[in-house]
Fold this protein.
Amino acid sequence: MLSEPAREHAADGDAPRYGVLGWPVGHSRSPAMMRAAGLARYQRLPVAPEAFEDTVRALHGAGFRGANVTIPHKQAALAVATSASDAAREIGAANTLTFGADGEIAAENTDAPGLLAALGDRPTRSALVLGAGGSARAAVWALGRAGAEVSIWNRTAERAAGLGARVVREPIAADVLVNCTSVGLDRSSSPFKDLLLTADELVQYTTVVDLVYRAGETVLIREAAKRGIDTIDGLEILVRQGALSFTLWTGLAAPLDSMRAAAREPETPLHAS
Ligand code: NAP
């Protein structure tokens, strides 16, 4: 069922356009989710790195009001922007661009507040972030801002230095574990060996968050849930960052339930109106 703003936009061929910039971007659940939220003209925008800057500069002229940004363009999105929020600047990456009439491109990072929104009022006195890529930077920044004592573990330890968290040589206990590595995308293999953890060691966390998302739950989420641990999966994280982008662009409260349902629905026909 379409939300209120969806009905407003769906009938209007001149409605603002939105999209998600990535390379590749075919796997993204954002079009289904954002269309369900009300952005009827939201589409995938597959753009190779070498074409990113020119494409972004042309989007406003093509009727776009905003775009989400995913791998590998989040740093380039910040670089092309004419203004940026403190969060985007301090994290060094943007996942949301807003286009103004005079060529302004405003950069925001909703990954960081999206993680905090997903965590809600769960205990976050301490957190362990796994990974040191783009999403780990946002997670460290967000959790640090929320007052957590943040530790970081990464396969390549040197990459974890300088991100604003205590670097650890192996996973340690904490209130929250946030997997910001890409480990777990492959459904056939267990993530534990690569993450230097065992499934039974997950009991040292009150909440387990896995940013990785795919059809069906990840092994990390499944094994944590089996042990009675509170879990937040990658689709919920996707919904929360998307909800914040939606509100930024429209000024409306995001219809979280419609977005969740669409994000979780396998193979939504994206071009049906
Ligand atoms: P990234 O910048 O490419 O970083 C990848 C990280 O994974 C690095 O820390 C890398 O470690 C680690 N890694 C890769 N293979 C590994 C292995 N076999 N063993 C141990 N560590 C390994 O990626 P990202 O942008 O941070 O994204 C990470 C994951 O989060 C992706 O799956 C992405 O789809 C997902 N994500 C989800 C959302 C959401 O809304 N749910 C948002 C953002 C990202 P090294 O430094 O040692 O290479």
Summary: The domain at 4-109+238-264 is CATH 3.40.50.10860 (Rossmann fold). Confidence is low (pLDDT under 50) at residues 268-273.
